[in-house]
Amino acid sequence: MLAETTIAPVNWGFLNIFLLAGLLLGARVNPLWGQTNEPNARIRSIILQSRHMGAHGLGYNDRSLTELSRKLAPADVPELLTLLKDRSLSVGVQFALASQCGAGIAQVREALKQHRMDFSDASDVMDLVAGFAGCPSAARAEARTAKKEIDQLQEDEQARIAEESRRKAEDDARIQANSIKMIDPVRARDLTREERVEVYQRSLKAMGLNDKGPLTPAQKQMVDRMYRTMVLGEGGAPPRQ
Questions:
Q1: For a disulfide at 139, which of 17, 101, 164, 166, Cβ 3.0-4.6 Å?
Q2: pLDDT band at 235, cuts 50/70/90?
Q3: Any idea what DSSP says for residue 191?
Q4: Which residue in 222, 241, 237 sits closest to 181, CA to CA?
Q5: Distance between CA 62 and CA 75 in Å, rounded?
Q6: What is the CA 181 to chain-centroid distance, rounded?
Q7: Are the C-beta atoms of residues 188 and 237 closer than 8 Å to each other?
Q8: Tell me: the pLDDT tens digits for 82-126?
Q9: Residue 79 burial (CB count, 10 A)
Q10: Is the per-residue pLDDT at 239 higher than 80?
Q11: H or E element that contains 75
């Protein structure tokens, strides 16, 4: 005769707690349940693992491009672009973007237009695409064309900045000369109202004040007195119209 087997009653309360803990843990680590704490952790890890020892130590090379092209996909490009702000990872991100060939070219161009990427990073990506044998010949040709365009845009931007700096320096020198004229009642007569306003505004800026901003009663009184004296010419020569 078989002995009777006694089955212990199930503690459903404990089991429910156990199952709930498992669900919460799964939601944290499994992308099918929810997002991880750091959405770009996977991509960051892939980039760092693609480094190899070379003549200058641990870095990126053609082997890195090949590995990145297998482990990443065009859908990862937007996330790669957000990682560019981490300058310690920027070279790896350039290689990762280049590994996506045509998809990388298109989105790098768009990021550059939107000022989400600088010229040097974009130019380096195009160099990498152009020299990566894993990219189709059409994509490599497109990258060479894009690099020329990017380099020209960079030259134009540098020229624009240089011209703005030159104009600003000329304006500063002119306003400084006019501020010296304003001290002399005779020479002050030669200044137009517009020139007086420029000197007045520059003087306020040097004092850290703004006549349109919040002012204490004492500051407002001082600003009003400066305006009457410097712009309206009260107590001295009126401005030339």
A1: 101
A2: low
A3: -
A4: 237
A5: 22
A6: 43
A7: yes
A8: 998 898 999 999 999 999 999 999 999 999 989 899 999 999 999
A9: 16
A10: no
A11: none
